């Protein structure tokens, strides 16, 4: 049982480039979300999904797009990378009931130069 | 808006007890969660509280007072492997997703 799998683990982008961070879970969880983690600021919610075909914005959505075509996959797209998007990105999934724990992927460390 | 506050750093000695506090002011609340995160790794779930009171789980306990917007995580019989960041998170906002505090980095010294 792999849980939540994120790829890649590390990435360096040039300003203006686009890329997609991949996230897949094999636990049949309804809820999936993307967070970024910056020093001193904790984890901040970027986008989330409560099921296939449904997505919504979190605290810091600007510069990012998501889609949820299947239950398993929830990719995060950076449309035009900026140095301010240098961060560690975590994907998480959880069952749909209230107050269930989140399971996190291993993270993607992204540097934009 | 949302505000969750935790001390930035704490230090304790192996074998001791440490209490990590979390205060919150949020527009929605369904529960308070604690996660542990070792450096360079993903957060992992420790415990959660929905109702006021103490929840015990082995060496870890978590307390919640909803009227005061206050929680703490109590770690007993500290071990070196407990050196990590401890994240306080509130659920009930953004479609039941979590809003996280800044985290408390705990260093356990021999």
Short description:
Chain A is built from no helices and eleven strands.
Please explain how this structure is put together.
The complex is a heterodimer of chains A (113) and B (110). The mean pLDDT of chain A is 95. Chain A has strands at 4-7, 10-13, 19-25, 31-38, 42-51, 54-57, 64-66, 76-78, 87-94, 103-104, 108-112. By secondary structure, chain A is mainly β. Chain A is built from no helices and 11 strands. Chain B is mainly β and 110 residues long. Helices cover 0% and strands 60% of the residues of chain B. Chain B is built from no helices and 11 strands. In chain B, the strands form 2 sheets. In chain B, strands 2, 4, 5, 9, 10 and 11 form a 6-stranded mixed sheet that branches. In chain B, a hairpin with a 4-residue loop joins β7 and β8.
Low-confidence stretches of chain B: none
Number of strands of chain B: 11
Number of helices in the DSSP assignment of chain A: 0
Gyration radius of chain B (Cα, Å) is 13 Å
Shape of chain B: globular
Mean pLDDT of chain A: 95
What share of residues are in beta strands of chain B?
A: over 45%
Number of helices of chain B: 0
What is the overall pLDDT average of chain B? 94
| Sequence of secondary-structure elements of chain B | EEEEEEEEEEE
Q: How would you describe this structure in keywords?
A:
heterodimer; A: 113 residues; mainly beta; seven-stranded mixed sheet; 11 strands; globular; B: 110 residues; six-stranded mixed sheet; five-stranded antiparallel sheet; 0% helix; 60% strand
List the helices and strands and how they pair.
The complex is a heterodimer of chains A (113) and B (110).
Chain A lengths: L3 E4 L2 E4 L5 E7 L5 E8 L3 E10 L2 E4 L6 E3 L9 E3 L8 E8 L8 E2 L3 E5 L1
Parallel strand pairs in A: 2-11
Antiparallel strand pairs in A: 1-3, 3-8, 4-5, 4-9, 5-6, 7-8, 9-10, 9-11
Chain B lengths: L2 E3 L3 E5 L4 E8 L5 E7 L6 E6 L3 E5 L2 E6 L4 E6 L8 E10 L3 E4 L3 E6 L1
Parallel strand pairs in B: 2-11
Antiparallel strand pairs in B: 1-3, 3-8, 4-5, 4-9, 6-7, 7-8, 9-10, 9-11
């Amino acid at each position: 049982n792999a849980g939540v799998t994120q790829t890649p683990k590390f990435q360096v982008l040039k300003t203006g480039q686009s890329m997609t961070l991949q996230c897949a879970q094999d636990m049949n969880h309804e809820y999936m979300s993307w967070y970024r983690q910056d020093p001193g600021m904790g984890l901040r919610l970027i986008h989330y999904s409560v099921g296939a075909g449904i997505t919504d914005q979190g605290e810091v959505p600007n510069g990012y797009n998501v889609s949820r075509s299947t239950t398993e996959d929830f990719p995060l797209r950076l449309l035009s990378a900026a140095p301010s998007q240098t961060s560690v990105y975590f994907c998480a999934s959880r069952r749909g009931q209230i107050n269930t724990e989140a399971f996190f992927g291993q993270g993607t460390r992204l540097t934009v130069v | 808006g949302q505000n969750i506050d935790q001390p930035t750093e704490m230090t304790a000695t192996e074998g001791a007890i440490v209490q990590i506090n979390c205060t919150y002011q949020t527009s929605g609340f369904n529960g308070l969660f604690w996660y542990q995160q070792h450096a360079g790794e993903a957060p992992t779930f420790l415990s959660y509280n929905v109702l006021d009171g103490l929840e015990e789980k082995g060496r870890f306990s978590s307390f919640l007072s909803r009227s005061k917007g206050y929680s703490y995580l109590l770690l007993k019989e500290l071990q070196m492997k407990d050196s990590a960041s401890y994240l306080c998170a509130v659920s009930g906002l953004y479609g039941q997703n979590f809003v996280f505090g800044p985290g408390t980095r705990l260093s356990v010294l021999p």
